[in-house]
Automatic annotation (TrEMBL), chain A:
PROSITE patterns assigned to the protein according to its UniProt record, in alphabetical order: ABC_TM1F, ABC_TRANSPORTER_1, ABC_TRANSPORTER_2
MF (Gene Ontology): ABC-type oligopeptide transporter activity; ATP binding; ATP hydrolysis activity
Annotated SMART domains: AAA
Record flagged with keyword Amino-acid biosynthesis: no
Originating organism: Actinorhabdospora filicis
InterPro entries in UniProt: AAA+_ATPase, ABC1_TM_dom, ABC1_TM_sf, ABC_transporter-like_ATP-bd, ABC_transporter-like_CS, P-loop_NTPase, Type_1_exporter
Subcellular location: Cell membrane
Name recorded for this polypeptide: ABC transporter ATP-binding protein
Spans through the membrane: 60-79, 99-119, 184-201, 207-225, 237-255
The keyword Repressor appears for this protein: no
UniProtKB/TrEMBL annotation, chain B:
Protein name, as recorded: ABC transporter ATP-binding protein
Annotated membrane topology: Multi-pass membrane protein
Predominant subcellular localization, coarse grouping: membrane
Protein species of origin: Actinorhabdospora filicis
PANTHER family reported in the protein's UniProt record: ATP-BINDING CASSETTE SUB-FAMILY B MEMBER 10, MITOCHONDRIAL, ATP-DEPENDENT PERMEASE MDL1, MITOCHONDRIAL
Pfam families to which the protein is assigned, alphabetical: ABC_membrane, ABC_tran
Family label: Belongs to the ABC transporter superfamily. Lipid exporter (TC 3.A.1.106) family.
SMART domains for the chain: AAA
Occurrences of domain ABC transporter (ranges): 337-571
Length: 622, 580
């Protein structure tokens, strides 16, 4: 019976529950692919993103470096002053009870401490502030971009993943901002200085010491390549954990009512375990890296010591130099140790940054017009011009669709499930752009209308009735934030929601809680209606919007619709033909094509499909 | 603090490994400490003596020590990975297990983002503490004590001065911790708010787009994120103040030692060599003290994170098996459902929704509940599977209070098709068999047939097709039919259908009704209805009004006798509307 099944992608056995989607990449952004060149390109994007985030703070960051250098210098002064105090301060006291030098040294020490204290404090608070500001910029940028991306993107990406990007990935980057940057500068600085000092002291011996450089580089490179891969997987596995967590919480009633908990737990444990395994792999890489750095450092020290001693024995250098060398080497490799820790955090943050860069690289497939055209004075004339549409290329939903809806007309769409009614509604509200052809409002292609203007012009009520946590008043005013309380109440009254709202303990100020859970489904639907009416659009779309209402409420809504729709273009999709009958015109759809078109009464008399539907519906009322 | 201490339950499985980590850390430090001595030996020995006798041995020993140290470091961190990440994963597992058990009332109040931030961000803080903070704390205290002991040995008056520096350090730590703990809690709570906003706007993206309110939600998100930044910056300021103090104190003591030591040397109480040794040793204290600031911050963050996590873990699920609860075997269940004097109001709303309601659904009967929007039909239905518990009165199945049955057996016997058909992003099969993992292909096929949802076989991969988040790429009617099939497949004793056909077109509705009739014949069913056409499923109808059942009878009886019923369900008014 099945005609053609697309090839089954490989699915991990324990992940069979997830089912098969178009491609596993469906959940990634298009910039995140597994081949080497995409990874490289993404890395470049990540770097560019970082650069663009830092750029505005270049000056401040320069200051932080200056503070850091001063702090460092003041810190170095301590041991020096001690040496000075002992060498130069004590003899005069012993000789003639002259405390002047000691006091001077002491005072200098205090001054150095004060400077160090102030610069350290300044550095920490300044760099911390910049770090947090950059983080805020990044959050804002990513969030704003998510808002720009189309519904189609959100449908495959899922909200859990959006949350993962905006929370856990940000956390990984925050760790970087939290600490380490100062180490980076200081460590790099001291490595360079000490290299120079060593070279000056004894070039031959220094060469032996610097032999460790290429080995270090090789090790870092090994770590970079491997950890990048592991940390990328870490980000992906934690995203899956988050997605599953968020979904389970969202549907917790169904989970409990169906005793799904044990199986959920098994699946979650599995995802959690995957994430843990990747994390452990990452930590172990960094353990090897840290151990390796330590080992190379110690090895080099031993080599230098042996070779140095040999040189001393053969009078090629003197003991003092050797002693200095050994001491400096310690201060040469310790920062490397710190660098290795920092590098680890950096790699983890980089992986997160790449993910975010991937999001930011995603082109909105329903983009805002570059040069928006203004809408002429409000009319509300809709036109589909040779529109073709498909969600997936292999299944055309609307094959060449032409339709003209004059301003002010109320059109009802009827047809079996899957006929394409909702799709037409989505095209009019520009959730999707047509694959071919043009949808236009008052003669302007929807693609050319500025987003805010389009949204003011077209509003849609669906059966989903998503409400935000917040008061009922806020929810009703969602489409028109400047509405007064009177206007809000008027809208509620018009569709018959006022009564139940005032019956609630705090009336319009009642918090409806997440998803509007404080209300019954029908009440949510009424609020959603009021929200759309208050928005006062020139085109109103109702997609099965009265399904959860009882008959009296529905009747009220219908009465309201008569007045509200009188001077407005409207597209009404409803199974209950009572709602359809208020339309001026009915379109019967089948397979994305209009098969009947006319005023309801004419169609009923015509004896076609609509007449049959109408008859069935009449029968159902008994 | 106590909550941090409670983390030990999670550390216990790793106790051996943690001990090993400590030992390794100590040995690594010993190896590191031994190396300078060996170097000393090289310089004082072969080099000074000017013969290479023993040089190679010493060099080999240094080499061995160095390699040993690197190996110890590697091994410790290798172990540390399993410990820290093990604790994190274990706690995450427990959080998930616990919130799954928490009652619907909890989830009504608690936003997902806040829960999520506990299971991710907060756990990360605990992980860092388990990985670094604890070890550093132990090592540093150890170092501090060891060094002070040596200092006292060299010259006790100055040693006391250094030891006395513990006093300001203590007060500094305390005041730092006190302020920091508040900031850290505030930061974590706010991170949860940011997650909430992100989650809510992601879920409501269609509404946001439909009303063109992106700017508004962006502003809201920015507001929350900016608040988070402000809290974090405040925290950073606190950090900068204390950390620089932690840096300054050992240096101040060093200055004091320099002055005092010089005077002591001048007075002959101490030799210069002793002073140098003293100062060198004292310098070893700088890092442990500096690190103290970091450790305190790290520990406090872990503490508030633990507080937040235990806040949730300590919330007792309100709906659990009573002691002595017994199983209701599906095979024995007849499905006699009774509501006796039931009163119910949602927590925290102060309004009673059901006010002494009595209702008797006979075994095998299908009873419809009618009533205006918001009268409490859904609420009533949620009492049978104990999604909520009655405030007064009781609900019984076969004469047994549902609270005396084990939850799992109760829910095995009562299956609900919710009015919001929640689907998960999983395969169709997984969604269908939510309540019955062992369902066979035949069971699935039968349920799909009853719900007229055979369309799933035509999806690209049939039952293995993943349906999108909340099944959104399916139409409302399709989702509703899947939700219906999901309830039917359980073959429960009591089937609860909340407005099950509202999104279906007339034709499909009729088909579903016809198919469903065969199932309902043998099953007790409670159906919330809005439409006369759905009433056709029922043997009797009950009218719910003002929190009680005001009338029970057949559809035509009630139409006849009860004006309120006519107002709610009369088809006539509907046709009048249609004909107008
Ligand atoms: N997001 C989507 N992705 C893929 N296919 C879709 C999506 N939404 C709808 N479809 C398919 O497009 C066709 C038309 O759907 P729709 O417009 O929702 O129909 P109607 O509203 O008339 O029931 C159906 O075959 C449906 O399966
Ligand atoms: N989770 C909840 N918390 C608080 N109040 C609720 C909750 N769910 C519903 N309500 C309130 O209880 C009343 C009954 O709701 P419900 O049972 O859903 O009505 P319906 O009869 O339409 O199914 C409504 O007034 C609603 O505001
Ligand atoms: Mg539809
Ligand atoms: Mg309801």
């Amino acid at each position: 019976m099945t005609v053609q099944t697309p090839p089954k992608p490989e699915v991990k056995e324990s992940h069979a529950w997830r089912g098969i989607a178009d491609t596993e990449e469906a959940e990634r952004t298009s910039a995140e692919q597994d081949d080497a060149s995409s990874i490289k390109a993404l890395r470049a994007r990540g770097r560019k993103l970082l650069g663009s985030l830092i750029r505005p703070y270049r000056k401040v960051l320069l200051w932080t470096v200056v503070l850091l250098l001063i702090q460092n210098a003041a810190g170095m002064a301590g041991p020096l002053l001690v040496k000075l105090g002992i060498d130069a301060g004590i003899p005069p006291i012993v000789e003639n009870e002259n405390y002047a030098t000691l006091i001077a040294v002491g005072a200098a020490f205090l001054a150095a401490i004060a400077v160090e204290y102030l610069t350290k404090r300044g550095f920490l608070s300044l760099s911390g502030k910049v770090g947090q500001q950059i983080l805020l910029d990044l959050r804002r940028r990513v969030f704003t971009h998510f808002q720009k991306l189309s519904i189609a993107f959100h449908e495959r990406f899922t909200s859990g993943r959006v949350v993962a990007r905006l929370t856990s990935d940000m956390d990984a980057i925050r760790e970087l901002a939290d600490g380490g940057v100062n180490d980076l500068v200081l460590s790099a600085l001291s490595i360079v200085t000490i290299s120079v000092i060593l070279l000056v002291l004894d070039p031959m011996l220094a060469l032996v010491a610097l032999l460790s450089f290429p080995v270090m580089l090789w090790l870092s490179n090994w770590f970079r390549v491997n950890s990048a891969r592991v940390y990328r997987r870490t980000r992906e596995t934690i995203a899956l954990v988050i997605v599953y967590f968020v979904e389970s919480m969202g549907g917790v009633r169904a989970v409990q009512a169906y005793r799904r908990e044990p199986r959920n737990q098994r699946i979650f444990d599995d995802l959690n375990e995957d994430n843990r395994a990747e994390n452990v792999a990452g930590h172990r890489l960094s353990a090897t890296f840290a151990g390796g750095v330590k080992g190379i450092g110690n090895l080099t020290t031993a080599l230098v010591l042996a070779y140095g001693a040999y040189r001393v024995l053969h009078h090629q250098t003197d003991v003092g130099v050797l002693a200095a060398f050994v001491l400096y080497l310690r201060r040469f490799f310790d920062p490397m140790q710190e660098l290795s820790m920092f590098y680890n955090t950096l790699q983890s943050a980089n992986a997160a940054l790449d993910k975010l860069a991937g999001v930011l690289a995603e082109e909105p497939d329903v983009p805002e017009p570059a040069e928006p055209k203004p809408l002429p004075a409000a009319r509300g004339e809709l036109r589909f011009d040779r529109v073709r549409f498909w969600y997936h290329k292999d299944k055309v939903v609307l094959p060449t669709f032409d339709l003209h809806i004059p301003a002010g007309q109320t059109v009802a769409l009827v047809g079996a499930t899957g006929a394409g009614k909702t799709t037409i509604a989505k095209l009019v509200s520009r959730f999707y752009d047509p694959s071919e052809g043009v949808v236009s409002l008052d003669g302007v292609s929807l693609k050319d209308i500025a987003e805010p203007e389009l949204r003011r012009a077209v509003a849609m009520v669906t059966q989903e009735n998503f409400l935000f946590a917040g008061t009922i008043g806020e929810n009703i005013a969602f489409g028109r934030p400047d509405a007064t309380r009177e206007q809000i109440e008027e809208a509620a009254r018009a569709i018959g929601a006022h009564e139940f709202i005032t019956g609630l303990p705090e009336g319009y100020d009642t918090d409806v809680r997440k998803r509007g859970g404080r209300l019954s489904a029908g009440q949510r639907q009424l609020v959603a209606f009021a929200r759309a009416f208050l928005a006062d659009p020139r085109v109103l779309i109702l997609d099965e919007a009265t399904s959860s209402l009882d008959i009296p409420s529905e009747r009220l809504v219908q009465r309201a619709l008569r007045t509200i729709l009188a001077d407005r273009t409207a597209i009404v999709i409803a199974h209950r033909l009572s709602t359809v009958e208020i339309a001026d015109r009915v379109l019967v759809l089948d397979g994305g094509q209009v098969v009947e078109d006319g005023p309801p009464s004419a169609l009923i008399d015509g004896g076609g499909r609509y007449a049959k539907l109408h008859e069935q519906w009449q029968d159902s009322l008994v | 603090m106590s909550n941090l201490w409670r983390l030990r339950e999670y550390l216990r499985p790793y106790a051996g490994r943690m001990a090993a980590m400590l030992v390794l850390a100590v040995f690594a430090s010993l190896a590191a400490l031994a190396t300078p001595r060996m170097i000393q030996a090289v310089i004082d020995g072969p080099v000074t003596r000017a013969d290479d006798d023993g040089l190679w041995w010493l060099a080999a020993a240094i080499l061995a020590l160095g390699v040993a140290e690197a190996f110890l470091v590697w091994l410790r961190r290798y172990i540390q990975a399993t410990v820290a990440l093990g604790v994190e994963a274990d706690m995450r597992r427990d959080i998930y297990a616990h919130v799954q058990k928490l009652h619907a009332g909890f989830h009504d109040r608690f936003q997902t983002g806040q829960l999520l931030s506990r299971a991710t961000g907060d756990l990360g803080r605990i992980r860092r503490f388990a990985a670094w903070g604890m070890i550093f704390l132990v090592i540093n205290v150890f170092t501090y004590v060891a060094v002070i002991a040596q200092l006292l040995q060299i010259y006790w008056p100055l040693g006391l001065v250094v030891a006395a520096s513990a006093v300001p350090l203590f007060f500094l730590s305390r005041s730092f911790a006190r302020g920091y703990i508040r900031a850290s809690r505030a930061e974590q709570d706010q991170a949860g708010e940011v997650a909430n906003t992100a989650e809510e706007t992601a879920q409501g993206i269609r509404v946001v787009k439909a009303f063109g309110r992106s700017r508004h939600v962006i502003e809201r998100f920015e507001g929350e994120a900016a608040k988070l930044r402000d809290i974090s910056v405040g925290k950073v300021r606190m950090l900068s103040k204390s950390w620089s103090m932690f840096d300054a104190i050992p240096n101040l003591v060093l200055a004091a030692v320099l002055i005092g030591g010089s005077i002591a040397v001048a007075a002959g109480a101490m030799t210069i060599g002793e002073l140098v040794a003293f100062v060198t040793l004292q310098l070893m204290l700088v890092w442990p003290i500096e690190a103290l600031g970091w450790i305190i911050a790290n520990g406090n963050e872990a503490m508030t994170a633990a507080d937040r996590i235990f806040d949730v873990l300590d919330t007792e699920p309100a709906i659990v098996d009573r002691p002595g609860a017994t199983d209701l075997d599906r095979a024995d269940a007849k499905g006699h459902l009774r509501f006796e004097g039931v009163r119910f109001g949602y927590e925290g709303t102060g309004k009673e929704i059901l006010t002494g309601l009595d209702l008797d659904v006979r075994p095998g009967e299908t009873l419809a509940i009618a009533g205006v929007t918001g009268c409490g039909k859904t609420t009533l239905l949620s009492l049978a599977p104990r999604l909520y518990d009655v405030t007064e009165g009781r609900v019984t199945i076969d004469g047994r209070d549902v609270r005396d049955l084990t939850l799992s057996s109760l829910r095995r016997n009562v299956a609900t098709a919710f009015e919001d058909p929640t689907l998960f992003s999983m395969s169709v099969r997984e969604n269908l068999t939510l309540g019955r993992e062992d369902a066979t292909e035949a069971d699935i096929e039968e349920a799909l047939q009853v719900a007229q949802a055979e369309f799933v076989y035509d999806l690209p991969w049939g039952l293995d097709t993943r349906i999108g988040e909340q099944g959104l790429s399916l139409s409302g009617g399709q989702r509703q039919r899947l939700a219906l099939a999901r309830a039917v497949i359980v073959k429960p004793a009591v089937l609860i259908l909340d407005d099950p056909l509202s999104a279906l077109d007339v034709h499909t509705e009729e088909l579903v009704e016809r198919a469903l009739a065969s199932v309902l014949k043998g099953t007790t069913a409670l159906v919330a209805v809005h439409r006369p056409s759905t009433v056709a499923l029922a043997d009797r109808v009950a009218l719910l009004q003002d929190g009680t059942i005001v009338a029970v009878g057949t559809h035509s009886e009630l139409l006849e006798s009860t004006p309120a019923y006519r107002a709610v369900l009369s088809a006539e008014a509907d046709t009048v509307g249609a004909a107008a």
